[in-house]
Amino acid sequence: MVPTLDVREEVTAARSDPDAVSRFCAALLASLPRADQRRKGELYVRGLLTASGRKTMRNLAAIADDPAAAQSMHHFISCSTWEWETVRAALAGHLDRTLSPRAWVVRSMLVPKTGRHSVGVERRYVPALGETVNSQQSYGLWLASETVAAPINWQLSIGKGWLQDHRARASVPADEDGTTSDGAAVQAVLKAAAWGIGPRPVVMDARHSALPPLIEAFTTAGLPFLLRISSGCTLLATGPGPRENRVAAASAEHLLSLTRAQRRPVEWIDPASPGARRTSLVAPLQVYWPGLSGARPPGPPWPGRRRSARRGSGAARCG
Questions:
Q1: Distance between CA 220 and CA 203 in Å, rounded?
Q2: Cα gap 148→133, rounded to integer Å
């Protein structure tokens, strides 16, 4: 049986207690079939924790008294046939047990690049920066509790144009047919859901995303979600004002203005200031995405009813 470890304690003690890393890696890398793979995996983890400067293979392998360690580690990471998803699932399981997460947070990760040959690199417009950047684009999935957050999955966005030009040289699998940014976000979540960890509400800033694919994917998977959307998005809502049974179509900003009298204070912990508590005003409002199958309230108004007509459980935050 693979031992269950407290990941937070193991990583904190790693620099002062070499055995802590060994115990952590024994649990995390138990699925690797060969002893040399497990040894190289532990060396890689130790290098990540202790190497200064850039995390190149040469720097990561410098802790080993072996001139060939850098080349051996590069082969292990880049070419060896071990199942990385199994290792990542083991990490997710450990973190799920030790952190007791309240949510799955999806975050965009942009890596600017100067060249053209790294996997998935292309020029793309970045709304947050207001400019076009030569970069890699991926999404990370984080398990978040009230005090701690840790990443468990990553999905790189690879455009069809890049695949067409570089598939053979980059050894991209034949079944990879390209992934949009929003598709990468969905895949990061659905792969983690398949690992058997306890499902939590998916929290994501979706102001610059195509909302229908996100809503459809999370709803079909049975995952509750909280999406931050742009103020101009058109939504359907029941009971946004005094006429409770009316189905209204309006912008998220307008619907939000109609609920001001229903706002209530909600206290939350600010991760940017450990221990600091903030208060926000929140108003619950049942909303529906127009045009999505199963998302619109059926027929005439329903007197006295307050249940949603669509599958799954979702919410939107206007921002």
A1: 16
A2: 31
The helix, strand and coil proportions of the chain, stated in percent and rounded to the nearest 5, come to 35, 25, 40
Cα–Cα distance for residue pair 100/315, rounded to 1 Å: 22
User: pTM of this prediction?
Assistant: 0.79
User: How would you label 295-306 residue by residue, b for 16+ Cβ within 10 Å and e otherwise?
Assistant: bbbeeeeeeeee
The encoded tokens of residue 314 equal: 């979702």
**What is the spatial distance between Cα 56 and Cα 61, in angstroms, rounded to a whole number?**
9
Q: Which of 266, 274, 311, 267 is nearest to 293 (CA)?
A: 311
CB contact at 8 A, 104 and 204: no
| SS3 annotation, 40-81 | HHHHHHHHHHHCCCCCCHHHHHCCCCCCCHHHHHHHHHHCCC
User: 220 and 189 in contact (C-beta within 8 Å)?
Assistant: no
Q: Is the dihedral of CA 221, 226, 229, 233 positive or negative?
A: positive
In tens, the pLDDT along 91-139 reads: 999 999 989 999 999 999 999 998 887 888 989 888 888 899 999 999 9
Q: What span, in angstroms and rounded, lies between the C-alpha atoms of 222 and 234?
A: 24
Give the CA angle between residues 24, 29, 31 to the nearest 5°.
140
Residues 6+ apart with CB under 8 A from 152: 88, 91, 92, 95, 96, 141, 142, 143, 192, 197
Strand pairing category for 264-269 and 277-282: antiparallel
Amino acid at 262: Q
The tally of CA atoms less than 13 A away on the side-chain side of residue 243 is: 5
Q: Confidence class of residue 184 from pLDDT cuts 50, 70 and 90?
A: very high
Cβ atoms of 34 and 81 closer than 8 Å: no
- Tokens 């398990």 label which residue? 143
7: tokens are 């990941």
Q: How many angstroms separate the CA atoms of 142 and 270, rounded? A: 16
